[in-house]
Design a protein that fits this description.
Length: 165
């Protein structure tokens, strides 16, 4: 059974995602990462979760190691290509992230336990393909969560919804 606080956070985040941030219309463009398929890069492989796996994860919280990536003009690790969602990189907005396991369009609430800062993001890219990392957030998200200077952080991740399309 989910706790009342998780239901409140999930409900508020879904309302915010659907309305204020307009994620619902953006999620429809997310088709590049195929749920259930395994992707490998630099000998690091991850399998993208399926829709049924994502349904079971709604409200689930886990702690993952996250890093951040920036605009390709300042981040040598960002190859200046279109994201797996077909979108362009938006390093200056604190609302997007990359994940090798969550499908594009997945909505997450992220909390940095060290700062208690919170961000609502939508997965719109694959990666990071670095062993032990499960999330790459935009520079603005890392700044909002208070770990941009450190480069990586352990974040609490709660799945709000899987892809809407």
């Amino acid at each position: 059974m989910k706790s009342a606080s998780v239901r409140i956070v999930c409900g508020a985040a879904i309302a915010l995602a659907a309305g204020t941030l307009g994620f619902a219309s953006l999620a429809e463009t997310a088709h590049a990462k195929k749920p259930g398929k395994t992707y490998c890069y630099n000998s690091v492989c991850h399998r993208v979760k399926t829709s049924s796996e994502m349904e079971k994860l709604v409200g689930f919280e886990e702690v993952v190691t996250a890093s951040f990536y920036d605009d390709c003009k300042v981040d040598p690790g960002n190859p200046c290509t279109i994201l797996s969602s077909g979108e362009e990189m938006r390093a200056d907005l604190p609302d997007n992230a990359a994940s090798p396991v969550y499908p594009n369009g997945t909505i997450l609430v992220l909390v940095n336990p060290k700062t208690e800062a919170m961000a609502l993001v939508r997965i719109n890219n694959s990666g990071p393909y670095v062993k032990g990392r499960m999330l790459d957030v935009s520079r603005a998200t890392a700044e909002k969560l208070g770990f941009a200077k450190m480069g990586i952080a352990r974040l609490k991740v709660t799945v709000i919804s899987g892809p809407l399309s």
